[in-house]
Amino acid sequence: MDAKIGKFFESVGTFFTAGDQIPLCDFDIVVGCEREVAEAEKGSSDELKKECHMRLSWALVHSKRPEDVQRGIAMLEASLAGNNSPLQMREKLYLLAVGYFRSGNYIRSRQLVDRCLEAAPDWRQALTLKKSIEEHIRKDGVIGIGIAATTIGVLVGGLAAAMARR
Q: Considering the domain boundaries, does residue 7 fall inside one?
């Protein structure tokens, strides 16, 4: 019986939390990437600078800290205007989709991951992210319906009580 109760609470917890497969990044990794970018800016090749910026962008959008995720989104948005190969563009769009997903903007995230999948329909990471996005959108809809139904029930109950007093 205890196992069934434990499974129930686990499934409820999974429903309300991110049950996704997107890795999280600790602050010390972000700091290390920032240090790497600073060193690369001192005279390294453009290619090395781009690689360091991509690693930092990855670390930021996967960070546990919302302000880092926002910084990563801003960095990636700014870098999209640059001269990117199709592969770099796809990678940046994917990281942007991760960033928007992590910040709760599931609609924008889905748009970006769809663009990735247009270029590479079999890309497993993008397919997994899209599945997570769809699950979160569905869960948000269920929660929204529950809130709306509760609100309507309270209003109808209040009206019924008011009418009964008259």
A: no
Neighbours of 109 (CB within 10 A): 24
Question: What is the residue range of 130's domain?
Answer: 19-165
User: What total number of domains does the chain contain?
Assistant: 1
Residue 94 lies in a domain: yes
Query: What pLDDT digit, counting tens, does each position of 129-163 carry?
Result: 999 999 988 876 555 565 656 777 677 777 777 77
